[in-house]
């Protein structure tokens, strides 16, 4: 986990944090490709590693029988892939509001401006998700503290 005060960081540290976030979020196609280590489908299948990554998916399965893949933008998880499944079609069918799937562009066809806009969407979603996770944890701790106080005051 990266913990640092971004307001005190220099540009080199910021770039390194940015790169770390981009890798973690599987923003670049090459990082999504690298996530599919034991993918059961070959390059001739419709859901090849290349096609999966182009359509925004990275591998999130656990173990041999789990072919779960997740979209790096909308977070949709799809599994039960078959060799004839087209990743773009499946993505559109199950997550029609995804910003990535709506553009229907592969990474190389993005303009720099489009890439920055997409990065903004992905970073916002990522931060919202981790903020909400922390909020749940804070609320749970507050509940525990409340229970302790309640139990003590009943003596
Ligand atoms: Zn998506």
UniProtKB/TrEMBL annotation:
<dbReference type="InterPro" id="IPR001370">
    <property type="entry name" value="BIR_rpt"/>
</dbReference>
<dbReference type="GO" id="GO:0046872">
    <property type="term" value="F:metal ion binding"/>
</dbReference>
<dbReference type="InterPro" id="IPR051190">
    <property type="entry name" value="Baculoviral_IAP"/>
</dbReference>
<keyword id="KW-0479">Metal-binding</keyword>
<keyword id="KW-0862">Zinc</keyword>
<protein>
    <submittedName>
        <fullName>CLUMA_CG004343, isoform A</fullName>
    </submittedName>
</protein>
<dbReference type="Pfam" id="PF00653">
    <property type="entry name" value="BIR"/>
</dbReference>
């Amino acid at each position: 986990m990266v913990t640092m005060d971004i307001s005190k960081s220099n540009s080199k540290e910021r770039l390194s944090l940015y790169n770390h976030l981009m890798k973690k979020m599987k923003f670049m196609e090459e990082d999504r490709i690298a996530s599919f280590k034991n993918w059961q489908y070959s390059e001739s299948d419709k859901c090849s590693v290349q096609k999966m990554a182009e359509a925004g998916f990275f591998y999130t399965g656990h173990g041999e029988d789990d072919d779960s893949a997740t979209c790096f933008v909308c977070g949709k998880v799809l599994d039960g892939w078959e060799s004839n499944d087209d990743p773009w079609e499946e993505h559109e069918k199950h997550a029609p509001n995804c910003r990535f799937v709506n553009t229907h562009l592969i990474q190389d066809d993005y303009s720099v401006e489009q890439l920055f806009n997409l990065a903004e969407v992905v970073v916002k979603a990522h931060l919202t998700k981790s903020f909400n996770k922390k909020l749940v944890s804070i609320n749970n701790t507050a509940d525990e503290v409340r229970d302790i106080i309640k139990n003590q005051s009943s003596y």
